[in-house]
Amino acid sequence: MVADRSEITVPPLNDALPLVGRSTELSALSALVDAAIAGQARAALIRGPAGIGKTRLVNAVVEAAAGTPATVLRTTCYEVTSGVGYGAVRALFAPLGLGGDRAGGPSGGDRDAGGRAHLLDAGAKWALPALLPEAQVPDSGGRDASYPVLHGLYWLAVNVMSTGPLVIVVDDVHWCDERTLRWLDFLLRRADGLPLLVLLAQRTGTAGPNSAVLAEILAQPSCEILDVRPLAERDVADLAALVLRAPVDPEFQRCCAEVTAGNPLLLTRLLGELSWEGVRPTAAGVRRAAEVGRNALAASVLPRLAGQPDHVQAVARAAAVLGGAVDQVGTDLLAALAGVPPQLATSAVRALRQLALIAPGQIDFEHDALRSLVLAEHSPDEVERLRVRAARLLNDAGRPAEEVANQLLLLSQPPQPWMLGVLRDAALRAEHRGAPEAAVRYLSRVLDASQDPAEQTRARVELARPLALTDPFAALGHLRQALADLPDVRARVPVVVRFALTALATQRALEAVGLLTAALDEFPTGPDSQPGDQDLRALLEATLVLVGSDEKSTIGTVREWLRRLPPPAGNSPAERQILGMTAVLSAAGCSPASEVVELANRTLRAGTANPSGWAAASAALALQLADEVTPALAAFDRLLVDSREQAAAWMHCVLLASRGVLQYGIGDIAEAAADAQTAVHIAEQEIWRRSATMPFIVLAYTLVERDDPDRAEAALARVDRPRFDEFVWEWHYFLHVNARLRWLRGDLDGALEHLLRCQRSLAEAEITNPVFVPWWVDAACIHAQQGHPERAVELVDQARDLARQWGTPRGEGLGLLAAGVLSGGARAVDLLEQAVEVLARSPARLDHAHAHYRLGRALLDVDDARGARRQFRQAVDLAARCGSQAISRVASNQLVAAGGRLHREIRTTVDTLTGAEHRVAALAAGGASNREIAEALFVTVRTVEVHLTNVYRKLGVTRRTELPAVLGNTSTTGAHSRSDDESGFREGGWRRA
């Protein structure tokens, strides 16, 4: 006779039984643990159906790691928390105590009782929004916090790994929130050389909401997939013998294996039920095993639960509804949801533990399948009512809005009015955490529930903000509808601005400019103005000049608007943006350099405290074109420090490339290459890599100067931006460097074709300044080389007129250089001598070297070999200082042809360093640690280690303390020469600038 199930105490069979039949899986996981301990980052997805034993395998790995210095961070995900931004991250790091009241703000925190606050040092401080309780999440100030938080969590993990390996375990990863998955992907992409193991357990047959992001993780080379197999019949027999404590009949063994499909959870539940019924593992027990086994899980749970008192069943339902949050909310709220007194709820939890439904020491179910089974016994309407009640109770108890919103997201019915505020609050918190996907989920429910047209418009505008970061095209659709529903122009201004900035990311500048100009035309002026109108109008104008300056189709509108707009005072971020863009557009349009410098200086004097830094960056570019190199470099340096401190990777990458253009223009090839390579490193590991074109272009420029056409071509091949030729600023550089690459390879016709395309493109963009991209100088040289100088005379004359209008030494010197190349005889010598003299007063050292080389050629043509040799040596000297092997090579060849002699090639090992290696070596020589260098350059510690290894090998040193002396060596690189008739020239007399 079967005992009364309501009185049976059920042991936790799964954890009590040994792990059988898993030697293959354990061996594979053991190898991953060994690799991680050895500093080879690994990840594994352990997948299989519910109950197959994934968690037990993970437990085995955790137990093995307990005997090592490894830190194990572990969490289980739940459907009810799958929409919470960084929910799994908070659970993972909770044991470290970093997100409590004493954690502090983004600038750092007090040392907690466990002495772990140091884990949030330096770049790791940006992890705090993901770790803090909802009430402490700092306001992001309107900035996109998504990258800084990812960046901070990466460095937090690195800090944890400074004391030993890190094992991250995420069970039921199919319910993991998207932000945590994106962080794991971010971490693994940068984990080369780190002692890291990431274990993910996934239930097959369950499509979680973020499977696409999980697929990105699985695509990484460091990630393996481990499919957990059903137990073999011999393993079934072993388990049956352990549970039933008797020899197992082969027929009974086969029956158990067949009805459970070798699933350990179903098998242990079946065997437990048979044990409680007194069934023996003989042929006689086969029939009962088949009857129970058809639904082993339900048969082992539901009858026992049905035999329990009502209050136990009510608590089981409530715990199932609360899901993974039940352990956080505690017994009192569980009792309220179940509708029973707290004392009865406590006794019910004990009873559920005795039935092996609730895990020991917890309130949550032992297995997700048990929770699903309990809920499946109730109608959808009943579960819905329980979820609504749970949400209200959580809200009334003051639980975080995100926690309440989790329940609301699972409702099939539209949210009630009180719920909308909760969803909005949860969305705002998610945005501050840098979790736009979660905010989109919350605000989508708000929009779905909004009935009033005004509420719908408000919801669309709110939703478009985070949606712009995840699906900008969808965000534009919502903003279009909102604009159509907003009759008042003042109310439309922030919406138009948001539309325009979102359109900038989606290459829809033409539509955005149309909306901006329409709003400006409609905006009230004169007696109809109200307080605050000036600021709103300035915001529209600033957005117009920023967005409209991006594409050729809209640049004319912006120029026309600026012609009618007097330069503002620069008292607000919007006014500073207008000033900065006015400066750079005036420079591109070849207004007098003195006027441009005044505008740029006003921009910088007014301050750079605007959200993006574009005002100061624009001013720096204008100063660069005007030969004001020192203030331009200072501005770029300040902006780079700020972007690094703010963990703004995109802005940092753009600024590095911009500073690289400046350094290339002044002939500092090594520094330009270092900036370009660092920017390339950043871009290549980010999702916006296709939008980053200038890092690759600047790198190609430096490689052409270094006489390395193959690598230059490879760099340009990585430029892959859609509609690239329709943009204003970068496309011309791309054409110009392609032309120089073809010229270097001897393809003169191909080079000219690209230069003429560059000319047409600049005209389409209304860029007339001849020093912006000096394509015309190259075209003049190539035409002269082909023996047709007359074909370039007109374009050079036009460029020289514009250069005079621009009024800088570089512009004037380039004009003289090009005119001299197209001339012959004494006139050529005269023009090129003037070019050398004028360019000596400019910061353009590379152009100065080129002028010396061309003057040498002209002197040879008039039979002045001695004078030619002097100019060729000067060209070699300057080119070597700049790091231009290309000019140095051709000048050296001409020197020999003119009767001069090269004593020997004098090179230092320093000049064998790549730009990135030189940058790393310089920082290391200055005392920076590998960690500090990595943070400064937005690269990984492993990348720094690789660069330093190459540096040590190339420089012949063994430790960083030797670097200052080696890097400070005044020896030089490149070809160097001296002839007998040049006694005043000291061998080794030029030094690296």
TrEMBL record:
Name all HTH luxR-type domain ranges.
906-971
Name of this chain's protein:
Regulatory protein, luxR family
Instruction: Give the start-end ranges of region Disordered.
Output: 966-993
Q: Does the keyword Secreted apply?
A: no
Q: Where in the sequence does UniProt note compositional bias of the Basic and acidic residues kind?
A: 977-993
Q: Which SUPFAM superfamilies match?
A: C-terminal effector domain of the bipartite response regulators, P-loop containing nucleoside triphosphate hydrolases, TPR-like
Q: Does the keyword Lipid metabolism apply?
A: no
GO MF terms held by the record: adenylate cyclase activity; ATP binding; DNA binding
Q: Could you mention a single GO BP entry for this protein?
A: regulation of DNA-templated transcription
**Sorted alphabetically, which InterPro entries does this protein's record hold?**
AAA_16, P-loop_NTPase, Sig_transdc_resp-reg_C-effctor, TPR-like_helical_dom_sf, TPR_rpt, Tscrpt_reg_LuxR_C, WH-like_DNA-bd_sf
CDD domains in the record: LuxR_C_like
Q: Which GO terms describe its cellular component?
A: cytoplasm
Keywords noted in UniProt:
ATP-binding, Nucleotide-binding
